[in-house]
């Protein structure tokens, strides 16, 4: 079934809408992530385990953001980038999207171990071991991206867009391995951490307030993760099913609209990570040159959530 004409008309409107979202996300994302990277790398004397993971998350978010200008360029010149460069950019985008997801899952596991097993976890947790885990993730994702780029022979008529109606099982694999499995891990760790924090017996009002704030931070991390990444992976699965059963052009067009909007929502995670992880970390405010009042108020919110 050829729905290319319908898709092109739809994509014209989507691209105009996408520009109004991508441009502010790009600038705010670059500013927030650059600030966080500067504080962690230039102002912090000693890195803790969580800081290693957060720097890894910053790097993956910045690399995602570097693909945005090329995406905007393709809105005006759809095929002028060339197939090889386009495949490289798409691979870079997907690789760092899942690096971001896997890093968030790793942070959740690390937080769970630190709070659930505070003594035993000292044997498993160290900045060096955290860096080693991050390197393993990079090697894994770089290897997968390279294999996919070399082995799969395809032409991309519109960069960053799937315009054919041929079912691609890779997107289902992305949804299962790249989202559902991390979601299960993050949800389990979040529930266990909250149960542990609620189980703390303390009569101190400040301690109780700290526990409540820590729980709110942890819950917000889970909510943001679901909001950002659930829609786009639902779109992958829905589109695969629709293309498999040869749905009508109108149905495929609506799914295309949903998928593109969902991708924009997922891209906003590059900014939201700053609010959910870096700027709520006590280490960030202690190392920054902000006023003592601001540093004190933010450092107080933490450290059950990020330790």
**Outline type:** globular
CATH architecture identity: Up-down Bundle
Q: Write down the CATH class.
A: Mainly Alpha
How is the quaternary structure best described? single chain
Number of helices: 12
Share of residues in helices: over 70%
Succession of helices and strands = HHHHHHHHHHHH
Spans of at least 5 consecutive residues whose pLDDT stays below 50 are 291-304
- Main sheet, how many strands, which sense, barrel? none
Strand percentage, roughly? under 5%
Computed structural class: mainly alpha
N-to-C CA distance: 54 Å
Radius of gyration: 21 Å
Superfamily at the CATH H level? Rhodopsin 7-helix transmembrane proteins
Q: Calculate the mean pLDDT score and round it.
A: 82
Number of strands: 0
Task: Write up this protein.
This protein has 307 residues and is mainly alpha-helical. The protein has one domain (13-282): Up-down Bundle (Rhopdopsin 7-helix transmembrane proteins). Helices cover 79% and strands 0% of the residues. Helix 1 packs parallel to helix 9 and helix 4 (83-116) runs parallel beside helix 7 (169-198). The longest helix has 40 residues, at 4-43. The chain is globular. The termini are far apart. Residues 291-304 have low confidence and may be disordered. GO terms for molecular function: G protein-coupled receptor activity; thrombin-activated receptor activity. Disulfide bonds join 86-159.
């Amino acid at each position: 079934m050829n729905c290319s004409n319908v898709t092109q008309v739809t994509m014209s409107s989507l691209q105009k809408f996408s520009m109004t979202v991508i441009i502010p996300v790009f600038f705010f994302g670059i500013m927030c992530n650059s600030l966080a990277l500067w504080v962690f790398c230039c102002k912090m004397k000693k890195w803790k385990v969580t800081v290693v993971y957060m720097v890894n998350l910053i790097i993956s978010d910045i690399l995602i953001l570097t693909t945005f200008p090329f995406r905007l360029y393709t809105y005006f010149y759809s095929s002028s980038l060339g197939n090889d460069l386009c495949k490289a950019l798409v691979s870079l985008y997907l690789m760092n999207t899942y690096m971001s997801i896997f890093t968030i899952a790793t942070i959740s596991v690390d937080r769970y171990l630190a709070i659930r097993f505070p003594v035993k976890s000292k044997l498993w947790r160290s900045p060096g071991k955290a860096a080693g885990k991050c390197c393993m993730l990079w090697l894994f994702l770089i290897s997968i991206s390279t294999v996919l780029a070399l082995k799969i022979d395809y032409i991309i008529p519109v960069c960053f867009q799937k315009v054919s109606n041929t079912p691609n099982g890779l997107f289902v694999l992305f949804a299962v391995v790249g989202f559902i499995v991390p979601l299960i891990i993050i949800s389990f760790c979040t529930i266990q951490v909250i149960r542990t924090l609620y189980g703390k017996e303390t009569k101190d009002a400040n301690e109780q307030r700290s526990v409540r704030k820590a729980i709110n931070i942890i819950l917000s991390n889970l909510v943001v993760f679901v909001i950002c990444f659930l829609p786009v992976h639902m779109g992958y699965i829905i589109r695969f099913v629709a293309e498999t059963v040869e749905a009508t052009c109108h149905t495929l067009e609506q799914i295309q609209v949903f998928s593109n909007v969902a991708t924009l929502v997922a891209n906003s995670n590059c900014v939201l990570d700053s609010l959910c992880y870096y700027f709520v970390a006590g280490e960030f405010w202690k190392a920054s040159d902000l006023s003592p009042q601001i540093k004190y108020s933010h450092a107080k919110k933490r450290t059950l959530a990020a330790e």
